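Q: Sequence in, structure out?
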Amino acid sequence: MEKTMVNKWWIPVLLGVVLFAASIFIVTRPTEAFLGLALVFGWFILFSGIMNIIFSVQNRKVFDDWIWYLLLGIIEVALGTALLLQPHMSVNALILFTGFWMVFLAVSRISSAFLLKKMKISMWWLPLVSGILIFIFSFLILVNPLIAVFSIIYLTAIPLMIYGAMAIYFGFNLRNYNKS
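A: Exactly. Output:
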């Protein structure tokens, strides 16, 4: 790999600090954090539905199957509204969302590990291990929703803490790579 300067090395560090701080908030304020996560999830689905409706209407002359985007948008608006009006429904949706999000976080960490390995960073295996741990936590959330209901706060906070720490580590390694 030809050595070039890495731009904006501080972005992963900033992301890591924010995620690490969020994990501390989640652990220290579990009730508020869970309700907040459920509300964010409802708003996310509602926003996605609105965007799909706008997209479908704006592109109805471009796409023959634009109606599917419209139907998806309508379903998402209805679901998002229901989740916001009846937060208890958000519990199951939040569990699934969190589990799958953490799968993607795990894949990201594992990918970062191999990037660090290509860059010949000696501790490249740390993000690999963290990615595997995050994947295990995501698997626990998806496999047993009853356990997840009682532990989602900690099964969210711990991987966020790990991901935040590894993002900080990754960013500083990129900075050090620039200096070498």
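The first helix runs from residue 10 to 28.
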